[in-house]
Amino acid sequence: MHIKSLSVAVALATISLGSQAAGFVEDSKASITARNFYINTDNRNGTANPSKQEEWGQGFILNFQSGFTEGTVGFGVDAIGLAGFRLDSGKGTAYNAGSVGKGGTVFPSDSDGRAVDDFSSLGVTGKVRISKTVAQYGVLQPKLPVVTTNDGRLLPQTFEGGQVTSNEIDGLTLIGGKLEHAKGRNSTNMESLTIAGSNGNPTTATANKRSNAFYYGGGDYKLTKDLTLQYYYGNLEDFYKQHFFGLTHSWALPVGSLKSDLRYFYSDSDGKNSSTEGRLAGYRASGYQNNGEVDNRTWSAKFTYGLGAHAFTAGYQRVNGTSDFPFLNQGDGSTSYLITDVQIGKFQRAGERTWLAGYTYDFAGWNVPGLTFNTVYLKGTNVNSAGSDRSEWERDISLQYVVQEGAFKGVGFQWKNATLRSDVTGQRDQDENRLIVSYTYNFL
Fold this sequence. Notes:
Number of strands: 21
Strand content: over 45%
Largest sheet: 18 strands, antiparallel, barrel
Helix content: under 10%
Number of helices: 4
Order of helices and strands: HHEEEHEEEEEEEEEEEHEEEEEEE
Distance between the termini: 19 Å
């Protein structure tokens, strides 16, 4: 039904725009991605229900991007259709009591905590282009340092709001906008925005405070072909303000290459989070002995040395301040722009100091193109906690293969395995496996 409605809308727009619609149609792109997703999480300690989470589903992602009508001012429309179907998920492995609609690992929950049979949504975005500047309003999937869409499950997270992107100056990309709502990767509902510490159960008023205004802006400046400088600002009204400074650099060495990635975030409180009364009302951030006020400075450095089919990575991150690193987090799956945001953990707690080491191998070096292997190990220490500092570690392994030719060309297979061990209060030890089969068909 969603695909049919989209086709009718595009056809009507084309007819009404007449001869101006040439670019609208000719530059249009459309694809559908089929994603089969299985996840098994073993919560190895603690008594909270469930101790084992296991879900399996089939998802479809329809993406449509029109071109722009001809003329000084061009108009266009984008759309994304999402549909997920449950293949296996029992109440014992997806139970989410008391949070109707919030969902388990993959699917929304019905009134008794069971995963629903299916869920779907359709989002539309209008856009206008003048010269090399594009304004959009509707459903967005930003991938910026201060706000990043999560795509780690059957279907991706989406946001709702407006954004302007400008490339008028060579080498400089400027982006600014305002987000008002977010739809989780296991939901069909657009909800107001919040952060960890205030994203609790909807039935608890003081633990579910939200905002309808996240303002952001900044840019990437390509100083040379190998060096990019970044600055971005984000402000979730009544929660936090955040400045980001970044630098990426690629260096061709006599033997191999070196890529550098430096990041610095400065975050402090905003609006109701700045006052004792506001924090008592529920506008709180997670952290230790900070009374819920945002107070965070996080910096990191990551270096990757590439040599043929091999890539070796080393990095370090330090979280300073009394609050955890703040970022948009609805409590149903989110992504932070940290070098430590991995399969299970994020290593973003107040006081945490994390080092990481990783290795990637491209089997094209063994004449098996399309097959890649990746592993990373992270160790976080000095986590601020009652009594003494705590620590945690995680090890991730990923093996991926994309068929290169034949009838199944483009089909991707991926296995992701992760182990997290932690003595941080409230964090359970976890073992997790994900199996993903995906294929994208471009029909425009």
